[in-house]
Write a structure and sequence with these properties.
The structure is a homooctamer of 254-residue chains. Chain A has 254 residues and is an alpha/beta fold. Chain A has 2 domains: 7-109, no CATH class; 120-253, Rossmann fold. Chain A contains 11 helices and 9 strands. In chain A, helix 4 packs across helix 5 and helix 6 (131-143) packs parallel to helix 11. Chains B and D meet through helix 3 of B and loops of D.
């Protein structure tokens, strides 16, 4: 039952066409879907500032392209993650201004510009192999209206590189710290700054890294307060939650 | 907003006191709670046939007794699981007809009699150490209106004991198979009968039993079809789902 | 010793040709196989309502085709799971009316129609990637005589989609809930309805999903009663046990 | 080298007492400690808004009391977590206005009032057993200047309880969602609201809950975006990071 | 149906009192239990050579004593494992010649003497902490008729102690190698001798020993052929299977 | 120092050419290698009855062929496990009478005939997918002089198939029970017979089978005594230890 | 056969009392024990520099005291680890100059002074809870002749504390880095200095620390080269290996 | 701020151009980067003796070649690990004297010769499959100035092979022990010698080897003191730390 239908029903009650008892009965049966319009509105508003996301794995290039086309047709920004070049070819055949980000393996097509958050998200990686995950986080955050600074390869094995960058860290609103292997980077950063740190373990490593488990456990057990963790390799999730946090700090007046 | 309030609102619309626009606005804001009465009715009906459950661990005897008293005051049957004798003493001080089941470590106080299911649930254990979990399952099933047969200590290490009981298994509507250590019993039973088998791994065992993990994995990997699994030591869960299944097979005409 | 042989032996005893002592000796040696005819009859009856299953992995297309042919030659329905198109080509070369279900990766060839259960199994998935497992469950249940409704992509991340479908869930006899990642769907459903829920974790996910382990643990630890769990990706097992349960609720009068 | 010493050195350079070469040499050797005053200042400022934390386990009541006394002597607020009543007795003997929070098992003694954040942190639990962890989070957040709303026992097994509270969730700035067993609560909440959700798995549960592992994995694998996770039972960590986030949203004008 | 009953039935057939059809029907229904007498005989014979075992944990001293008394009353040897001194007190009150083995924590009461195997079982431990498990194995093997030699504390960290004993190892029929921590002892022994080695991991160790898991994995992955493994701390199981093997090598002529 | 050298040294002592002090010094320095001749003799004798084994993975066909040729040149039997057809082609090019066992993926070339053990090893599998591992066990046992009976596909899901074969199991000297998935077969067998059972878990299965872990844990936790376990898929290890055990039971008089 | 016996035998050969053949036979049978004197000498020499170690857990105070007395009677230094005060009381009753180290829970009694290594071992902890393990390491190293510097509570959460101490780290010969929780400290240190770092994970932490597993994995996966790891809480092992390394750098000239 | 800039600033203070207050302010803001030159010098010195390492996985041949070229252009030695022949082709196209080590899968190009350590590192493997990891360790150690002896295939299954080599082990300064499967080799070696042993678990094995986990746990739980462990398959890490240790023992006078 959409708003028009509800209005019609109430008019019928007002006019006496429908009895109060009948209307009561019908409204009691309203399922949540019928009330959905409010939520959908809210969702639509929300989506102005955030892309619909297509998760690539397990989908054919054709399926990805179809979903992307449907979104742009509805005026929405597209973000497709973990996609290969074939998927991009299929998307570009339908959306001529789509962009491929080869490092992050993301496809984007921007429609409208979300409100720009005033703060800055700094994305930091421990090593060069963590960059794909970090780029996925950075692109996600940018699409949701955040300014992003990238700081690659400042892992704790050479702590002086990290410390040399501490000015940039101090000016961040939120920090996304991406690291594999032992995953110590977010701990060190959270010990240096008093901003929320979103920690992203990566599957970089071998042997007892167990596909990112070592980094994940390291981050969860951080002796530094101020950090929280997302799933292994989940750049998108980190970028999304960092974007939500950054938006709290206010919008850029333009 | 309960039904009376809804009715009042609609009368106001019918009488013209409230405009259609105003009523639309109010009804759009209806949160789910307001629609809750239908669901609550359904739930209340459901509860006639099933006890409210109090999970004992982490609660003081006094807290358990208070919760139990509130339920019986509302005319509902009580089932409190994993409770020691002190908890029972506290409950009996308030509910004089409460019963303690020392093996299952359950407290019950029956109020009203649920509709009796026509079928039979057979609860089987591999060893004597599995009986507490099995009793919890049996009591739960009985309280929900099922007839229960108990068949203890027929584990696969002496397969002839199990086979000797196959007639009883063939007459079951549902079977709850409770076993620790390697947890092979449900597999063997599911290979013998064509009834749903609810498998309950127990934490009985030592060493590489890893607190029931071995039994759990064994049951999940059963090469026999027709069984599904609940959590380690979860007698209550097994009794509950077996009760739901048994009820599907029809009620006893009385 | 089949029934005829037993009868002959008893006639010989009746006629005095064989002494009681000799017959006692022979009957004592009866091994279980000899008594097997009763079980086989029961099995045959059972099979009228349920397909023999061929598990594809580790078998060549030729082996699958041979097994399938043998079953249809015996008038039995075939269900081959986890088979690629090559296997289907091999089967169709021998069984012209075989059908391939590409999403579920199943091959079926129906012989006879099982008694139709009166109830309905609703198969629900959390996401689109769970559909192959859900389809395997649905096809298995249909072949065993159940009516199946499919409800795809109603995961808890957008709980309103699930709630919007609650009417369909309330009318189910049994629900099969299929979900990967955190596997919360079956918990939410079991909290909404009072029907048995068969939970199927899938290996959909990455990182700390650990190939379905996260979903499996989530389902086993559900705080909602009324659900039981099968192995990761085990659509067949879920469909089979749901079929057994659904049959308990009675057959369709035709 | 503190600021005064630096100043003295530079005066000596200015007066010619110390040559440039000598001063260069000394300043090159400055270790980080010498530069520490800036950092310490920053830290002190930070501490105005946040309590020093004493982690109780492994410390004697006497040690906890000594640490607490030292902090209050320095004019700082005390938060001691995971402490029993004996520890509180020892603390109160020295700090007469100390408070014990028996559910959270925390000791607090407030010195000065941190700047109050304008937003609201809503702390939600799945069950009653999760409340101690949630209270630790709530107290931590309150001490750091956040307004906290508590919403207990709205787990997904009875999803209608959660949905009934969605208005309160929509008004939150940050949400802390605390749940044990399968840990599905944060997923469901993150699917309903577009605010950052800090998920806290608890060790509540048994069997395959594996001390909180199931809840942890469930939260990490959430199919809903917008949440990040802290360690099992880490109420303090969740309260701390939520406080940092809430502060981003601005301070209350008073 | 026991043998007498079968005989009676056949006499009735012979006399014409029971028709062949009726007898066929009854015999078809013979369940396995009825055929059990052969098996029971076999079992009884087997038990002459092997004690019934009472597993102590989870049983009260009184229950252990009752079970032990029933066994001795039936003329059978008793072996109760993992029992404390209280259990022994209860047993001795009923069985005056019962013996307590404090290191192995076993209670024994011998009735009859099993046939003595000609070979020798050598039980070896890596360290002194492994002796309780090794003693349980040794006592089990002795009760089943094997001669046992004990060789304690010859772990691989001081390989020369082991090598110094190689003569004794060469003369063994079967070797039981008991070790905790890294569990390397059985590998080294299996590389020295060409006799079956039964490897018993123990829970001795700390940290990454994970309760015996490290030793268990070490033994399963042994690069030496000729060994097989039982559960962690399962001295009884090792003694039992070693006894079975040793018996294969022939009995002592007496 | 070989025996001749030792003899020469002693002759020199006897003749006075070498002083007692010098000889003492030299003999003190004797390293273990020098004492090795005894051990080598023993090993050589042992090898008459058992093939040298080449473990295929990680070796090129050429390397396998070279090793095999060296063994046959020394008059020894070859067993190469886990080899593909390419490896066999390379071996046959050098050893014309080599045989390939495609199911077990073994290459054999027999040189000499080991003493034949009097007993019989029965190799049993739960399913058809376990046959490759079982064949590796069977071939290993045959090469070491054991008579082997194969009993395929008698898993516990259809327990009647296993029971139908119990006569064959009762006549075995040793039983090798090979099973994947839940791995219950060895437990059931050990409960039926009083012979040593060597249990072999296989990696057959999916999902929570975790590559054979479920079967392994099931076998280690067997509630039946009399079985011991080898590594997942370790057919060779099972065949080797079963051969050692079988040989204990005596040799066939020929 | 000790050296004297060997000498006697050779004299008998020299004198002709024993033939060369007989002597050959006897010497061939020499087991390794007989050759042990060389090794024992070497061991004794080694022990001058290193205490015999008594591992406390599982031993009674009386047993510990007996072992300690035997060592001092032989002129050897005693180190007993993981011992409570009762054990110390028992030891002191026999060895009046024994010392108890309550933090490390070690008992020592020094006999003789090992050669003093020229280098310095710096033992560093991440937090105060790691000190007991670190003290065990420090005491072990000191007893083996190393000079030890202690640097407590410099964990990575406050990286400036660590950096402030880098001068002391640069002057170390070997560093033992002890840390629980996420265990990042050794990585950071190994990135700062070019000395061997022995990393000791501790079981300090809760939740996903999993008893030290998180710290262990973190250290094994360190992205910094130059570190190696010992078992969780294994202070003794770290002190021992660091002592061996430190001794390589030369002895102190005295 | 580099040294020149610092000097200029101080000159300005000396000349009065800059006030003490201004200079204080600027020097307080000095970030760690500015102080970095000392550290960089130290690092450069260090690098004379040790190659920069390029970790191959996840890098294209072109990227590896570029990095390698940059290093040699700076006069530094190159070590690239885990590289295939394609990577080598790309490197050789730019660095004509580069060498490929096919077993270790390393590329090296030596520039300058590090100071040669006086001691010897002995690298030992349990089996032939461990050689690639061992070679990586050996090459790393050689490049850092150590003399390396290789001792392949002396695993504990044939302990006499190891013992036969004990003279070579006794002469080592450091031992690197590389083993897969149960990983017992380092324990046995550490029990024989009193030198530091660096243990390297490898992923060699199958089934319950779990990719090297069994070997890793075995080594961590070694009952022999004197060993420490690196990550699974981490030959480079072992070679690096062994090189650091070996250098402690002094340099070769040349």
């Amino acid at each position: 039952m959409n708003e028009a239908a509800l209005r019609t029903l109430l008019h019928s009650v007002a006019s006496g066409e429908v009895s109060v008892a009948q209307a009561t009965e019908r409204l009691k049966r309203l399922n949540i879907e019928d009330l959905g319009f409010a939520r959908l509105d809210r969702h639509r508003a929300l989506r102005v500032g955030f892309p619909e996301v297509i998760y690539g794995p397990g989908k054919t290039p054709e399926q990805i392209a179809t979903l992307a086309e449907r979104l742009t047709a509805a005026g929405q920004t597209v973000l497709a993650t973990r996609c290969g070049p074939e998927a991009f070819d299929a998307v570009r055949a339908r959306i001529s201004d789509a962009t491929y980000h080869p490092v992050a393996r993301c496809i984007t097509a921007v429609r409208g510009r979300p409100p720009q958050a005033a703060g800055t998200i700094v994305v930091v990686t421990g090593g060069t192999s963590d960059i794909p995950v970090a780029e996925e986080a950075a692109i996600t955050a940018e699409l949701s209206g955040s300014t992003v600074e990238r700081l690659w390869d400042v892992g704790v094995a050479g702590i002086h590189r990290l410390l040399a960058s501490h000015e940039r860290l101090y000016h961040a609103t939120v920090i996304i710290a991406v690291a594999g292997m032992e995953g110590a980077l977010p701990s060190v950063i959270a010990g240096l700054v008093d901003r929320p740190v979103v920690a992203v373990p990566t599957s970089v490593g071998y042997g007892a890294a167990f596909g990112g488990l070592a980094a994940l456990l390291g981050m969860l057990n951080s002796c530094a307060a101020g950090l929280s963790v997302v799933n292994i390799d989940n750049g998108f999730g980190a970028g999304y939650v960092a974007g939500l946090i950054n938006r709290l700090a206010g919008l850029r007046s333009e």
